[in-house]
Write a structure and sequence with these properties.
139 residues, single chain, five-stranded antiparallel β-sheet, 24% helix, alpha+beta, Thiol Ester Dehydrase, Chain A, 4 helices
Length: 139
């Protein structure tokens, strides 16, 4: 976990994490959220979809963005104010996803930090692109 002070965070700072998405991740996410859409859980159904196989929930991958923001940059003592996301490509079982957050702007009067958020797979293909707004409440 990162406990960065607001003043120590600079435009251009970046943090990331890497995770390989498993079948168990998808099943657990479906159980937790109740999103049991067969595109995520039923191989036969998914085989006839535009993806040709099961895919991870978009919000499962987006949750990894939350993990970067809450634990690395800006880290603890931050509040998630907003997130814009564009789901660019599917994440499939076995894909290794790299999620990156990059500080693009700071608003010192309100201690607000804007970040570009992105996720890409092991082939370097962008799967999620977005922008997050965080507020540093401590340090």
């Amino acid at each position: 976990m990162s406990e960065l002070a607001y003043d120590d965070i600079k435009v251009g700072d970046e943090a990331s994490l890497i995770r390989t998405i498993t079948d168990a991740d998808i099943v657990s996410f479906a159980d937790l959220t109740g999103d049991t859409n067969p595109i995520h859980l039923d191989a036969e159904y998914a085989a006839h979809s535009m993806f040709g196989e099961r895919i991870a929930h978009g919000m499962l991958t987006a949750g990894l963005i939350s993990a970067v923001l809450g634990t690395r940059l800006p880290g603890t003592n931050s509040i998630y104010l907003g997130q814009d996301l564009k789901f660019v490509a599917p994440v499939k079982i076995g894909d290794t996803v790299t999620v990156t957050a990059t500080v693009t702007e700071k608003r010192n009067d309100k201690r607000i930090i804007k970040l570009r958020t992105a996720a890409s797979n092991q082939r370097g293909e962008l799967v999620i692109d977005g922008t997050a707004v965080m507020k540093k409440v401590g340090l």
